[in-house]
Design brief:
Elements: H1 2-20, E1 29-36, E2 47-52, E3 55-61, E4 67-72, E5 76-83, E6 90-96, E7 104-108, E8 118-119, E9 127-128, E10 135-140, H2 141-147, H3 152-156, E11 163-166, E12 174-177, E13 186-190, E14 193-194, E15 212-219, H4 223-226, E16 233-239, E17 248-256, E18 260-271, E19 274-285, E20 294-306, E21 311-325, E22 331-332, E23 335-336, E24 344-359, E25 365-382, E26 395-415, E27 418-435, E28 442-459, E29 462-473, E30 477-491, E31 497-511, H5 515-518, E32 535-548, E33 553-572, E34 578-600, E35 603-618, E36 644-653, E37 657-666, E38 669-670, E39 683-684, E40 687-697, E41 702-709, E42 717-719, E43 722-723, E44 728-738
Parallel strand pairs: 1-7, 13-16
Antiparallel strand pairs: 1-4, 2-3, 2-5, 5-6, 8-9, 10-15, 11-12, 13-14, 15-16, 17-18, 17-44, 18-19, 19-20, 20-21, 21-24, 22-23, 24-25, 25-26, 26-27, 27-28, 28-29, 29-30, 30-31, 31-32, 32-33, 33-34, 34-35, 35-36, 36-37, 37-40, 38-39, 40-41, 41-44, 42-43
């Protein structure tokens, strides 16, 4: 394939770059550091800054074994800053003598409060959460190990500000709504590669989190840094790296009700300049109703090599293959609407790969060159539908989308108080949509080129982030998206009220139309429009963070205000066919209140409440002669966005055992059964879901665990007509051989 040849060329280019990078070594003085976590395990990928007289003179990332080596020509005193996502920043002073043998200095990181925890996604560089200029929440690998989520939707629903709607059973389409935006307004990134298709809803119900090291969730417009789709949030997932000198084999299995069975294995380690993690995971479930079966398999690898002390190469690969039965819309809170559909099913078969070259040179500079290739293949088939079902005619949709490209990101630390991030991205997106009832297939291709720049400053009590992105697309021309964020330390405070930060940001975002909306012939029930423009948003937010009790707790409150315009709707054209146009506008505003802190050193709590008010401003389908019914008329709220929602996550992470209690509380919200039924089906009732999980180390090699989803056995619909799983239980054992 043409894209495969392009990807191979990118791999060759990165290899060539690594071979021509010339770095000056041979210094007579060395600084050797090893970064470990509170359990003395190596921390890979931590950013280590070496400073002299307040100026960064070298920046490197720790190896898989947590090691970093600086070679300097001058003796003297240096300051070292360690920035590791998920931990607090650490600073120490190191004295160097060219005549003394260098010894390894061990730096033990500490798990910080939420405000002090280093995050990456909000700025593309490690910064404390309170200085990120955005609301950021995360789940650590340890928390995910307790939760044991079947897929990302099981974990995302317990993050502040996230409203997850899953169409019934496991594997059902699971969408995310944030700050009143559509389910298409979220950027989803796995191992540095975007896995969401522009203009389309991303299905979190088929995103496995096996071997995930961390998940970060940023709310607000972030198109300046991430381009299309980052209208209301960015979700980013990283895969674990191997870190033990002795190879470590992990494997296990669990099972539960509804015929659920899960098995997994991984082999990871680090030796010299190499590290590796190869893994596989498979889950199967019959579900609780007719045609509710779900299966998903995942295979992947994360392999790295330190070419020199300043140059590193990393290759990542993931393949997922899932099958889901689709029972159709037939039951609403125990009231059957139609007989289930026993013949419809969906299938996803996705592959993504990336090659990343990281170069830390010259002084204060970091460069990252990434080539990526992703293939999305989706089939929805209903070949023999029963005559009494809602969808009672045979159909089949096939979507194949390939995204291949290259991205460069550069970072330069001018001073301790100034940092620049800039980059360039080129991506070729091509695909085909095939609706067997509307031939011929609808192929399409577009080439996007992006350039972005962001500057971070910290001047006394004021921190500022300003950036912009310029995009040139082969289909819709040019667009620009700026963003600015300000954070002010208003009060330093004392032991009880330990600091007050005020925050404001303004930004714009955009989302490219889906391929089927702009290319080819009729597909998915609409006529494409070659002149479609991106959907846009104007977003601002203001809030404060109040630290409490010497920083152990933090209270955050944020007001957000989003205007969405040029939204795409299908309306009749001059020929009477439904065609896509940029016509609709809507508005959303509200508030988020979040309390995070540590009850004890190993016991943490995050609880949050979100109020969201939405309104349709313009809908061209609604006219004086043909008014729209609720909920599609101007002034009506947007579908599936509750006014009131809340989350709670209580986590204990010990050395011998761990446990979590998660709560997701979603209020009444407008919805549509998309059937000719009474108006009471235009609303979904509120619900409360509680999940429990825990593990116990029988010994250093064997761990038993159990998880209960919907522990209160609440009967509810997240999406009208699709009953959610009742109480579901999984229990199992995992084993570890080798390692340290």
């Amino acid at each position: 394939m043409r894209c495969s040849r392009v990807f191979a060329s990118i791999v060759f280019l990165l290899a060539a770059l690594s071979s021509i990078v010339l770095l000056s070594t041979g210094a007579s003085a060395e600084i050797k550091l090893r970064v470990v976590d509170p359990q003395d395990a190596a921390v890979a990928g931590a950013e280590v800054q070496l400073l002299k007289l307040g100026k960064p003179i070298a920046v490197q990332a720790t190896s898989a074994e947590g090691l970093v080596l600086f070679r300097e020509t001058a003796s003297g005193s240096y300051r070292v800053n360690v920035l590791a996502p998920g931990f607090a920043a650490e600073t120490l002073t190191v004295d160097v003598s060219p005549t003394a043998a260098a010894e390894i200095v061990t730096i033990k990181l500490r798990v910080a409060t939420a405000a002090e925890t280093m995050v990456v996604t909000a700025t593309r560089t490690p910064v404390p959460s309170q200085a990120a200029g955005a609301d950021v929440d995360s789940l650590s690998g340890e928390q995910l190990e307790v939760m044991q989520p079947v897929a990302a939707d099981d974990a995302m629903r317990f993050l502040p500000g996230a409203v997850v709607n899953t169409a019934g059973q496991r594997g059902g389409i699971s969408s995310l709504f944030v700050r009143g935006g559509e389910s298409t307004y979220n950027k989803v990134i796995v191992d540095g590669v975007a896995v969401d298709n522009p203009g389309e809803t991303f299905d979190f119900g088929t995103l496995a989190l096996a071997q995930a090291d961390r998940v970060e969730f940023v709310r607000g417009a972030q198109s300046t840094l991430y381009g299309s789709d980052a209208m209301t949030s960015v979700v980013q997932v990283w895969t674990r790296t191997g870190s033990t000198r002795i190879p470590e084999l992990r494997f296990g299995a669990d099972g539960g009700n509804f015929g659920t069975a899960n098995g997994y294995a991984s082999l990871a380690g680090a030796h010299g300049r190499f590290d590796y993690n190869v893994f596989g995971d498979e889950i199967n479930s019959n579900g609780q109703g007719v045609n509710n079966a779900y299966s998903d398999s995942l295979e992947g690898a994360n392999v790295g090599m330190a070419i020199t002390d300043q140059v590193a190469l990393r290759v990542r690969f993931r393949h997922s293959n899932s099958y889901t039965g689709v029972p159709g819309e037939w039951d609403f809170n125990g009231d059957p609407l139609l007989a289930p559909n026993t013949s419809e099913w969906t299938h996803q078969n996705n592959i993504l790969g990336s090659v990343e070259l990281a170069v830390a040179a010259p002084s204060g500079w970091q460069h990252r060159f990434t080539g990526f290739d992703s293939l999305y293949r989706y089939t929805d088939a209903n070949l023999n539908p029963p005559s009494d079902s809602y969808d009672n005619y045979a159909d089949r949709y096939d979507t194949h989308i390939n995204r291949v490209g290259f991205e460069y990101q550069g970072d330069y630390s001018e001073r301790t108080w100034a940092h620049s991030t800039f980059g360039y991205r080129i991506e070729n997106e091509n695909g085909v949509v095939n609706d067997q009832n509307s031939p011929p297939p609808a192929p399409g291709q577009r080439l996007d080129q992006d350039a972005y720049l962001q500057q971070q400053f910290t001047l006394g009590r004021l921190s500022a982030i300003a950036g912009a992105r310029f995009v040139h697309s082969s289909t819709y021309g040019n667009t620009g998206v700026p963003r600015i964020a300000l954070t002010l330390l208003a009060l330093r405070g004392g032991d009880v009220f330990s600091g007050t930060h005020l925050r404001f940001s303004y930004g714009t975002g955009f989302m490219e139309p889906a391929l089927y909306q702009i290319f080819g012939q009729t597909a998915y029930g609409g006529v494409p429009n070659h002149g479609l423009l991106p959907v846009r948003t104007r977003a601002f937010e203001a809030g404060f963070e109040q630290k409490l009790f010497a920083g152990r707790w933090a209270l955050n409150a944020t007001y957000f205000n989003n205007l969405f315009h040029d939204q795409i709707e299908a309306i009749p054209n001059h020929s009477g066919e439904y065609q896509f146009f940029n016509l609709e506008q809507s508005f959303a505003h509200g508030a988020e209140v979040e309390l995070q802190g540590k009850i004890r050193s190993r016991l943490s709590l995050t609880t949050a409440y979100t109020y969201t008010s939405t309104e349709i401003l313009e809908n061209p389908q609604c006219t004086p002669t043909s008014p729209c019914d609720f909920p599609y008329a101007p002034g009506d709220p947007l579908l599936r966005r509750p006014k009131h929602s809340a989350t709670t996550l209580l986590s204990y992470l010990g050395t011998r055992w761990g446990a979590n209690l998660g709560g997701s509380f979603v209020g009444r919200r407008p919805d549509d059964a998309f059937l000719f039924v009474p108006n009471h089906f235009f609303h979904a009732a509120g619900y409360a879901r509680v999940d429990l999980g825990g593990w116990y180390a029988i010994n250093s090699r064997i761990t038993a665990y159990a998880n209960v989803g919907n522990a209160l056995n609440d009967h509810y619909n997240e999406v009208v007509g699709y009953p959610a799983l009742t109480a579901n239980i999984r229990a199992g054992v995992r084993f570890r051989i080798g390692g340290e």
